Amino acid sequence: MKKMIIAAIALVTFAIAPKANAQTKMVGGAAMYPTKDIIDNAVNSKDHTTLVAAVKAAGLVETLKGDGPFTVFAPTNEAFDKLPKETVPTLLKPENKQMLTKILTYHVVAGRLSSAELWAKVKAGKGKAELKTVAGGTLTVMAQGKKLYLVDEKGGKSWITIADVFQKNGVIHVVNTVLMPN
Questions:
Q1: Which residues span the domain enclosing 58?
Q2: pTM higher than 0.90 for the full model?
Q3: What is the pLDDT, as a whole number, of residue 28?
Q4: CATH code where residue 146 lies
Q5: How many domains is the chain partitioned into structurally?
Q6: What are all long-range contacts of 116-122, with beta carbons under 8 Å and residues at least 24 apart?
């Protein structure tokens, strides 16, 4: 009887485990758990150390730990490296907090928009869709082949390289370029 109970528990555990892990994605060498918030996951990604430092400098940690839901287009360290050499150190200075906050919140949209929802918006918009950012700006979502990309207000393009990294309080889509508001 005891062996049957253990076997039943093992079978149930095996059947549930793949579903529980199905939404857990690897980003920057770290598992992103759907049970954790955006900040608790992002701090573990080695590809997002610049973004995390910027979020801290802008005082947005508590906001992104909040209930949300948020859709965050999260630039990688390589995305920040594409900016002119002194841009990031300059933005991280306390006197530039307002500009840094504007740039970071330009990467955030209220609500939880999965890639399927973004695709649906693009199809409904005949090839493109506009998203209103928390900063008050507009991002345009478009598709090329099987990839989604964003166009910022200055015409810059950023590809979604990892989509649907679901969090307790939203979703992250990893992007390869920093998006710039007007």
A1: 25-175
A2: no
A3: 87
A4: 2.30.180.10
A5: 1
A6: 118/148, 118/173, 119/143, 119/148, 122/148
